[in-house]
């Protein structure tokens, strides 16, 4: 069974580890502790859309910290999530393997999402990240890193009506390489809402009315303080900007006033949540600077999938569809990386990158050599980050054979090769082809104009699905044609 660590015991545990290190230097050497290894801050915002930040073109909301991060590092314009919904994307990041290979292809839930009289049923799927999966946190831990987890996990199956308590606690972060688990559970959103009392079985309540992003930031800052003399990983997978859409009164009032003044803001509360997520990032970055750790810390900022389905901070969405769809609105995400002295400040990359590239990148950053038989489906971005080299990449693939919570999406697969993106819908085997580098809104379907290219890409996608042993959605035996 997993060893559970109460939230209030994290500091005591860290103190004990520090004392042990002082008394028994050989214990430190045994885990390859190297204070020169770079610290890692990995911030993944929940449901943040591509154009939700200032540095990606949305100027009606204040995101000064992510703006500065982009000025100091590299901003990617063609970054894609591992999947169009949260659990498979998070599994792809944690494992470095495609959701299709893992057979973890939908957001983990006790519910079954499907429209009435659907042509296809959901493909078989697993309901937790397998315990035997070797996560990047486990690799970093074994290399001497203190790994802290803060926020949303959603890689475990929750018990029905439990407020996020999971069926198997061995599937939680503190059994997957992390020293702690501060708030990660089986729920897709904050179990009891954004303000304390949280009703989260893995997060102690704070003072009444405490705002969750503020709490997560404070806990992460404390973790950094405790572990500042050794390499650390801050895995800040915060719950913002997931539903329920709620923020502080001050932020709501700020953006309501800004909208009344003519700003292009669709949902003022959501805009406030975006600023709150940016402030959380800022508190971590400020602590890094305070301790003089900036030069030896790599910072990654991204989102788990495309923007949320029901709200937008802007009145003018540019991508087709949203979270839960295989169009770019569900897959395309912001990604910014800063590493002073290694990444040239203010660079913009149009390389095609995905969540699957983060695991091998972190291994290269920490100079960790992996076993030859470990399967990773991505490529290290280190040459791109540090030397702006082009990736030797043939194509990237996506497989979403399940219905999202809204049950309105079509089940299908995607291949992106160079300038072109092909979607293959599983219900009728039809395809759509877009020159995605020029048609980011996926308006002009070129499949009929380019039948040979469409056929080649479709066959290539099908070969990949076979290679990774992807589960396909079965046809509904009770379907009645209308």
TrEMBL record:
Cofactor(s) annotated in UniProt: Ca(2+)
Pfam families cross-referenced by the UniProt entry: Sulfatase
Keywords from the named record: Calcium, Hydrolase, Metal-binding, Signal
Domain spans labelled Sulfatase N-terminal: 38-368
Transmembrane feature ranges: none
InterPro entries per the UniProt record, alphabetical: Alkaline_phosphatase_core_sf, Sulfatase, Sulfatase_N
Family stated for the protein in its record: Belongs to the sulfatase family.
Name of the protein in its database record: Sulfatase
Species, as recorded: Coraliomargarita akajimensis (strain DSM 45221 / IAM 15411 / JCM 23193 / KCTC 12865 / 04OKA010-24)
